[in-house]
Amino acid sequence: MLLNTFTLCENNQSEATPADLDKVMMPARSSSGGISNNKVKYSRLADSDEGYIDLQFKRSPPKVPYKAIALATFLFLVGSLLIIIGSLLLTGYIHVENPDRTIPVLIIGVLIFLPGFYHLRIAYYASKGYRGYSYDDIPDFDD
């Protein structure tokens, strides 16, 4: 078969048919060199399940990150308190001598409020079983 490839190259035949290439690439099986069917040993599959049960393939109940939820609750409450105080200072309901200090209170309140609200929302939806929400989305501090 390799001789056929060399003769194609020697004769400058640049176009070889796909059948010629298959002959070169795919050698024929010989009955003397291959494994005969009567020498292959087969065995039956075991009737038992080898100790595997369906419960081991089920997902375990999710681990609730209580510390992370407590921290999110704390951030939510402190952020809400700072937003309320900052807005009361800004509107003038609470009189202050330096009104330029009210804006930083609002900014800090918003920065503390947002992550707390975000993680509490995920925890709420995960506890209710909404699709797409899981306790795995909340960072855990037990690692």
TrEMBL record:
The chain crosses the membrane at residues 68-96, 102-120. The keyword Phosphoprotein does not apply. The keyword rRNA-binding does not apply. One of its GO terms (cellular component) is early endosome. Its main location: cytoplasm. Keywords: Cytoplasmic vesicle, Endosome, Golgi apparatus, Membrane, Synapse, Transmembrane, Transmembrane helix. It is a multi-pass membrane protein. InterPro entries: TMEM230, TMEM_230/134. GO terms for biological process: synaptic vesicle transport. It is found in: Cytoplasmic vesicle, Autophagosome; Cytoplasmic vesicle, Secretory vesicle, Synaptic vesicle; Early endosome; Golgi apparatus, trans-Golgi network. Belongs to the TMEM134/TMEM230 family. Involved in trafficking and recycling of synaptic vesicles. PANTHER family: C20ORF30 PROTEIN (PTHR15664), TRANSMEMBRANE PROTEIN 230 (PTHR15664:SF6). This is Transmembrane protein 230. It comes from Tachysurus vachellii (Darkbarbel catfish). The lineage of its organism: Eukaryota, Metazoa, Chordata, Craniata, Vertebrata.
